[in-house]
Design goal:
This protein has a domain of 67 residues. The protein is 82% helix and 0% strand. The chain contains 3 helices and no strands. The longest helix has 37 residues. It comes from Bradyrhizobium forestalis.
Length: 113
């Protein structure tokens, strides 16, 4: 069975790419402002909050990269492979983040004892 091609006009792909770029830039500005704001407010949970923000930023970058790959998919099979790869990497990343956050919280708890 031959997989049908995704016939997406070049103009639409270009528009999608520009939209992704604009959204990524806006999120970058948000993360920059949030990081500066967090740095100005010292507190017990600041390091954990910074780490959570960094993980969120990393996840957003992965999502934008995923969107870029999908925009250039040429058939449904490629789009499904891209989606599958993305989900697999996100699950792995989420597990890594949880282990790191748990470690940070455990260290933070030990420092208070």
């Amino acid at each position: 069975m031959i997989e049908p091609k995704l016939e997406v006009p070049a103009e639409l792909r270009d528009l999608a790419e520009k939209t992704i770029d604009q959204a990524e830039k806006a999120f970058g500005m948000f993360f920059e402002a949030a990081t500066k704001s967090m740095s100005s407010v010292p507190g017990a949970g600041t390091e954990v909050s910074k780490q959570a923000l960094a993980f969120t930023e990393q996840n957003m970058k992965s999502a934008f990269e995923h969107a870029r790959k999908l925009v250039h998919a040429t058939d449904l099979q490629e789009a499904m492979r891209i989606q599958s790869d993305f989900l697999r990497s996100q699950f792995t990343s989420a597990g890594d983040h949880m282990r790191q956050m748990t470690g940070s919280l455990m260290q933070s708890g030990k420092g208070k004892s």
